[in-house]
Every structure is written in structure tokens, then in C-alpha cells.
Amino acid sequence: MLSEELKDRIRAAYAAVIEKKSLTPRWGQRQMIAEIANTLARIPLPGETPAERSNAEPAVCVIEAGTGTGKTIAYSVTAIPMAQALGKRLVVATATVALQEQFVHKDLPDIKRHSELDFSYALAKGRRRYVCLSKLDRLLADGQGDNSVLPLYPDEFELPQAAEAMPIYHSMIDALGRGEWDGDRDNWPATVPEQVWLGATTDHSQCSGRRCPNISQCSFYKAREELTHADVIVANHDLTLSDLALGGGAILPEPEDCIYVFDEGHHLPDKALSHFASFCRIHTTVAWLQDSGKILAQGAATLAPLSGIAHYLKQLPEQLENAADSLKVAEQAVASLFDDAEPNRRDETQLRFEHGLVPESLIPLAATLAGQFQSLVNNLSRIEKSLEDSLEDEFAGVDKGDLETWHLNIGGMLGRAEATLALWQAYAVTGKGEQPPMARWITLLDSNGQHGFELRCSPILAADILQEYLWPRAAGVIITSATITALNSFERFILHSGVSREARFKIVASPFDYSRAVFSVPAMDCEPGDAEAHSAAMIEQLPNLLNREEASLVLFSSRRQMLEVYQGLPAQWREEILMQGDGSKQEILRLHRERVDGGDGSVIFGLASFAEGVDLPGKYCRHVVIAKIPFAVPDSPIEASLAEWIEARGGNPFMEISVPDAALRLVQASGRLLRTEQDTGRVTLMDRRIITRRYGRAILDSLPPFKRELH
């Protein structure tokens, strides 16, 4: 219930921020504050059950807040006092680690200083961002790198060279001992090569948690301890979803005790898909099983004194060998599928199964492998439990250092075995009757002239995932972003996320004056369907469209066209262009700003990554040129499977998926122009389909209210 006292507290906090920061109150912020407050008022008060409430609607709101709304202030001054009043923790999840750092180091301190709200906050990161002291001790004791611990994915990460790694590890242990470093990778003063860092960190499957002898000095657990007292926890989407995938409460508080804010929330469905997909790279999994067998053979005698473990250890070599043999048989069956493919598909490196249906020849092999990996998982789980118990037993009969090493080994084996089990379980069924179906596909890999196969399986929509792990469990959820709707509707987000239609939905308009900018479609005698003619037309028109004394951003949907247009332009224009791929994104943006600050013009040629999240206010971008309506290339097996499913249900994938997706991307690309209330400029779309096609007019009407020049 939203009491008058709480309303006053929110109003006072907002007014204080506006006054002390000398800001102008914005109608959009007031709308957001009201929407969030009314949504969170649906959460039962401490001691009150949901059944006692007059309204049983979900405490979920989805807010599209246009660029410049100031949504961070709006959700902070509302959600922080309401979470405190409701006895909940506020988890703010950003889309990237960089935004997470900005929020915790800049935005939150600023809001706390000016709002007169009293709250604490902490930054949440996963285990992989922290050094593992047990691993570091072992690496230094070995002196040549840790040869006793089996890497979890040795096929994906190269082991570091001792000459490169050991000086870094010594520096780390010294800095920890002197209290000059907290074990957080992001706070280490120098860049650490990826393979060196991976050798000194761990994940959930290999961590022995409270049983670890270094627990009192553990950087991860020290950081996690801070979370238990913080009113606001700043995470990112990946960490939040990882926690939910582990059942909730593994890193963050239990979902039932959390109010989540997903900033840049339009990314949430895609992020969720990646966390619940599974894969198995056959040839490297065989090698990993064989390496595991060798490591176990070396250590069996060491673990022999442990009571109750000998029986399970004795079974492992045969289980590993049987699984490896079955994988080799499966590899032959997969190769046959490629050989038996239709003639026009035999040169393809990817084989996607229509409607997610597994070939009959693969189902029994997958069932066998699922059974074998299930037995392996069961056995490894029992061994891991025994090792954990022994770590707490002073009279276990095995050296503690050896126990730690074997816990890491067995934990790593268990983690990979569970991941592989999930894949084979997904292939051990026909796939018939799945609604929606899973996407299943196999990729032919070529490494150093040797072929291999990777099997993958993924949901095609995140709806079921989020309906299981997030929506019904969280105390409350706020989704906000500048781009959530497509074609002025939330339908696309509802389809992909599974959010209840009883949630609150709100579009908050941007405070920007879009009449200060022009949206233009120039006259052209071709459409992007004729790729060669379209590129030629761009080469001809760009020198006249662009002002060499201004800063411009030209966005392409394909690298091929970007290169063609670049090569076709006169030499004097090519000198003005900074092209994606010629340097890192950050370096290109730095050079661009440097040129503009020096009084020169500058042109960036970029792809999709420059169409979202790039902030070039004022003089840094006066003209955005978009080559064509950004329809996705249907090369993703997940997108292809989704389109196939919609068509099978009698729908139109182009109108239901492709057009809304393209509309949202076009809004994002157009949004690169106006970044402050004073900005002016022009957006030029070199695609006449937005005028000539029926769907084009729908896309056009979903754009911000620019002045239009349609030729």
C-alpha cells in the first residue's frame, strides 16, 4: 500500500535532487515515478499475505522512457524508499559491466548525496571477476603453473605459459598480502591476459564455498558479504540471470526478497536465451573425457583413504571411457547427416533441424549418451559431496592441499558433465509437441584442417524461461529502456519475454524537441533488394549528402556493403572516414571526437554495434545516414526456428517478427542523432521502401516525430 508518508518521502527525494542539481523537473520523470510507485504498491507489506490484498496483479511494470527522460533518477528515488519500506532489497541490473560501474561509482553516489535518502549500496560481480586464493596458492606452490588441476574447458582456453603467468601471480599474492588489492580483476592496475586470469579464478562448480580453508580471506565471499547488508545491489543482466539459473540466492538474495530493475531491459529476453542454451563440441569433449581419466588414474591412490569414496572412484574410468566411445559413434552419425544432406546443402557448415525435430538416427545415440552422462553426474556428485565433507574433517587421512586440488578437479568435471548432459537430454527426444519448439542445430567446425562437430540447443523464446525463474518469484520487477516497443506496441516484448498482460505498461515520451531535426528519404531509382545498384547509388549520393565540415555517422546492415561503398568513394572522402574494423570501437570514437575537437569534420562508417549505445552529443554527430531499413539477416538458427514456428501456426513471420524487429532497430539507429535537448541535425534513410511499402509506412509512423522530407 502506498501510504501518504511514503508518497511524501518520494516527492521530497525527487524535489531535493532537482533543486540541488539545478535540474528542470521533467514530466516524463513524474510519469515514471507514479508508474513505479503504483506498481510496487502491489507488493504485500511485511507480514501481509498476497491473498489479503484487494489486487492480485503482478508487481511488474514495463516502461519505455524516451531518450533524455532521466530514468535513472526516476526509478532510484522511487524504488529505493519503497524497497526499504517493504523490507525488500533493490537489485538494479544494467546491460553491461561498464554501465554497472557507472551506476555504482557515479549515479548512485550522486543520488544519495542530493536526494537526502539514507541507503547503502554494493556492487555485485560473479566469481570469475575475483581471484581464487586457493588456486593462486597452488599455482605458486607448483612454480610452473598448476599441472595438477584439470581445466574445465581446455579446448576453449589455452593454458598460460609459466614465464608469463608466474610473475603476475607473485605480484597478485604480494598485493593481497599487503592489502593493496581486493582480488577484483577490475581493480588490478594492469591488464591481465585472459588465459593467465582464468588460471587464477574459479566458477560455481569448482568452488568449495564455506568449506574452503581460505574462506575468511576469499575476495568473492568478502564482496558477497557486503551484499547482505546493502539496500541496493548493482548487478548486470548476465549475473542476475546466472543467479536465477542457479535457482536464485546463489550470489544475490532470494528473488522473493528482491525488487529488480532491469535497465536497458529490451536486452533481457536475448540475454535469458543465452543462459539457457546448451552445447557439446564432440571431438574436444572426447579429449576432455580422456584427460579426465588420466588425471583420475594419477590421483586414485591419494584419495583411497577416504571412506565410502573408493567404490565411486573405481567406476569413473569405465564411465569416462564408455562416454568417450559413445561420442565417437555419435560423431560418425552426425557426419552421415551432413553427407546425406540435400545436394544444395552439402557445402553448408550448419545443419538446422526443421521445427527442432531430431533425426531418428540420432535419438537412440543421444539417449545412450544422456544415460551415460547422467550416471557420470550422479557419481561425480557423490564424490564431490564426500570431498566437501572431508575438507571439514580434521582426521580425513588425506592432505588438505590434495583435498582442495581434487575438489577443484571433481567440481570442474561435474560442471562440464552437467552441461553436456543437458545437451544430450535435449537430443534424446523427438521434439514433437514442443510449443514453442527448441532450436536444434549442428555446426561443422574446421580447426587446423581437422573437422569436428558442435551440437547446440536453445529455446527460441525466453517467455517460458522468465515465466519460470523471474516473473512469479520476484517481489517486483521494473523493466525500462528507451526502446522497448516496436510499431508503437509492447506486443513484441510480451511475446519474447512472457511478461503478464496484467503488468503495467507505459510509454513516456522523450522531452526532446524532434522538430529540431529532419528525417529524410532522398530520391533514388533503386531499392536495397538490388544490392549492386543500391551500393552504387550510395556511392554517388553520399558526397552530396554529407557535409565535410560536420561530424556524421553512416550505418550499414552488412560489412560487405560498407566496404563496397568505402572503396567506391573518391580518395579525398576515404581520408575523412573512420571505418569499423580498422580499430576498436573505443579507439574509433576517440579519434572521431579528437578530429571534431580540432575543428575538422569526421565520418564514421559502422555496423549494428554503432547503432545502439553510442553517445555522440552535439557537434560530435550532426547527421546520421542509415543505408537501409535494418532487417535482420535470417542466418541465426534461433531466429529461423522462430519464423518457422510462427508460420506453422498460420502466422506471418515477416510481419510478426521481421518488421517489428526492424522498426525497433531503426528507432535505435535514429536515436544516435539527438542526445541532448539542444541537439539538432538530420537522419537520412537511403531506403525508399519506408514510403513505397505498406509495412514501411507502419515503420515510419513508429519513429520519433522528426520533421519529414520524403522525396
From TrEMBL:
Residues 15-323 form the Helicase ATP-binding domain. GO terms for biological process: DNA repair; SOS response. Its cofactor is [4Fe-4S] cluster. It catalyses: ATP + H2O = ADP + phosphate + H(+). SMART domains: HELICc2. InterPro entries: ATP-dep_Helicase_C, DinG/Rad3-like, DinG_proteobact, Helic_SF1/SF2_ATP-bd_DinG/Rad3, P-loop_NTPase. Keywords: 4Fe-4S, ATP-binding, DNA-binding, Helicase, Hydrolase, Iron, Iron-sulfur, Isomerase, Metal-binding, Nucleotide-binding. Binds 1 [4Fe-4S] cluster. Belongs to the helicase family. DinG subfamily. Type 1 sub-subfamily. This is ATP-dependent DNA helicase DinG. It comes from Sediminihaliea albiluteola. The gene is dinG.
